[in-house]
């Protein structure tokens, strides 16, 4: 099981200097894996990132959120095609970096919707994910579709909703990506979605109810980690937290970061690494009871 950290804990971009900073800070905090946010895969400096990654004992994954001009479930075919191109470009980057997981809201633009998804929009999203999955399979990459809350997509908002969507996608290298921040808003509790998804769960984001320090909000992490251990989850677990101390203004607005809950990345990251490893260790000892 790899314990990882989202790159935006350390730096606001994936320019070469920021990638190097994120790699070294992630390792210094005790993590095994860096999750890189791929904002624009076509302009990403693959060679620079590969050089830094190969010089350090660290695994890498990548995440992406779709934007207004590249929405997989748009009614506009040009916009759907742009989303598909962006995913395929990202998979090329991941393949070059030797990454195993490509995760996040790959299937939707992240925004508040004013109506339910139409049948056509859902079909577009399914088609885009199928195309991306087939290319990812050639590269040995697993896709994780992140379940996000109702204010960020209208396609699905729960683990069970994701499983129904995955049945339509029908590709073996696509699974569910759960995030405790979103689960805390939408799910019945923090264990049921893990038990429901079980071996179709491929990636996990750990975030607090307000996206600040783990343990300072309302998320039931005990229930969540016990459920992960109970289903034998062994995929990546990545810490995610955002502050305008690091994240630039545009993205801060998109993520609705209106107040800062931390200003010291090193302290936050080291705390999160210890918190996650401690909870997993405690849950594992239940086998001795
Ligand atoms: Mn997340």
Short descriptors:
binds manganese (II) ion, eight-stranded parallel barrel, alpha/beta, 289 residues, single chain, 8 strands, globular
Can you tell me about this structure?
With 289 residues, the chain is an alpha/beta fold. The chain contains ten helices and eight strands. An eight-stranded parallel barrel has the order 1-2-3-4-5-6-7-8, surrounded by six helices. The structure holds manganese (II) ion.
Overall average pLDDT: 95
Count of DSSP E strands? Answer: 8
Number of helices: 10
Which class do the helix and strand fractions yield? Answer: alpha/beta
**Fraction in helix:** 40-55%
Spatially, the strands of the biggest sheet line up as: 1-2-3-4-5-6-7-8
Task: Give a summary of the structure in a few sentences.
This protein has helices spanning 16-28, 46-54, 77-97, 119-138, 159-169, 180-186, 192-197, 221-230, 249-254, 265-284, and strands at residues 3-6, 33-37, 59-63, 101-104, 142-146, 174-179, 201-206, 237-239. It is an alpha/beta fold.
Q: What layout of secondary structure does this protein have?
A:
Layout: E1 3-6, H1 16-28, E2 33-37, H2 46-54, E3 59-63, H3 77-97, E4 101-104, H4 119-138, E5 142-146, H5 159-169, E6 174-179, H6 180-186, H7 192-197, E7 201-206, H8 221-230, E8 237-239, H9 249-254, H10 265-284
Parallel strand pairs: 1-2, 1-8, 2-3, 3-4, 4-5, 5-6, 6-7, 7-8
Helix pairs in contact: 1-2, 3-4, 4-5, 8-10
The chain binds manganese (II) ion.
Manganese (II) ion binds at residues 146, 179, 205, 240.
